[in-house]
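Practice record 12: protein with G4F.
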Amino acid sequence: MVQDKRCALITGITGQDGSYLAELLLARDYVVHGIIRRSASFNTDRIDHLYQDPHKAGTQLFLHYGDLSDANSLAATLRKVGPDEVYHLGAQSHVRVSFDLPIYTVDVDALGAMKLLEAVREYQQHTGRQVRYYQASSSEMFGDVQEVPQTEQTRLNPRSPYACAKVFAHFATINYREAYDLHASCGILFNHESERRGETFVTRKITRAVGRIKLGLQKKLYLGNLDARRDWGYAPDYVEAMWLMLQQDTPDDYVIASGRMISVREFADLSFAHLGLDAKDFIEIDPRYYRPTEVDQLQGDFSKAKRALGWEPKTTVEAMARLMVDHDLDLARREKTLRDAGHTLPAAVGHDQ
Ligand code: NAP
Ligand code: G4F
């Protein structure tokens, strides 16, 4: 596909980050292609507002079926699309679930990245066109941390199948950069959340529960380890950093973080307090949510990204919690309207993991 506008391909476009990144790129006049998986139920709700009818002239968003377990689908999409930039965000991204599905997680998160890197390498070799590549690396790779805060140099001590798979993908990306001169960068992103965060990640599980408890739709919130500490930032701020990495002349790896860490308990306290509730009255511990090996603390040092990319976070964890609670209170209001009209609601939201 030859065109004058810059063209990006996003894996994981239906996820939290993929949806914000697609918005950012469309706002910058990119043609955006996304790989989506076939699923029995619709999985595009995070990007439905961006949908454009492909039959109409001037359309700039295109979706293609593919899967990270299917190397052919990745190579074929790459050839068809001819992107300038590839953002590899697709993954089985839930750490707790990776203990239940270790082989699947490694297949998709580790081998999936290698399949995409190979597809990019071959595409470059055959066409002579340079493709810039972004790998969604994770602070989870630091695992059992011995050094606070963590930088790009901190030793990786992964503590889950997910983290092990991400370590593989991280080093595979660096290896392809060195071996084949690929313009490939890794963003080592610390936890980032939003109103679009999956409902089984702890922040969203909490803010969903706050809204529902406030309106009497839910009585208790069952959580696991309240003492874990994370460096939480806001996803729309973080996708900007992904884009900045691919605009540099030289590819490199960057920590993207807020620089502060708070505990799950503190996040719950400030979320409940936003609606005048006391978290202690509603939270119960369910050991089911403990992990076989936990990452106790993560705190990132984003000074390299600030220096080289001019990037810094804009949204504090307190402001983000307020945005998420307000959004989820609104969702709960809609649920309540449905319930009051006699519709059946799901038994629990964020019920597993
Ligand atoms: P997310 O909301 O879970 O989105 C994951 C995306 O990957 C979804 O679009 C999902 O499709 C897609 N996907 C999953 N398995 C796939 C497969 N086999 N083939 C093709 N696509 C597949 O994750 P996120 O929070 O946006 O995170 C984006 C990336 O950053 C992930 O790689 C994650 O591991 C990494 N990361 C996230 C954070 C964070 O705090 N959010 C921090 C560091 C790194 P469906 O919609 O069909 O499920
Ligand atoms: O929200 P979480 O599930 O996120 P986690 O495990 O830190 O992983 C997220 O961030 C990573 C970056 O470091 C990403 F790579 C990864 O894809 C994902 O986006 O859990 C956060 C903490 C954990 O310590 C967990 O044990 O919250 C604790 N927690 C306590 N109760 C809980 C719960 N986590 C979940 N999901 N559910 C609970 O009920």
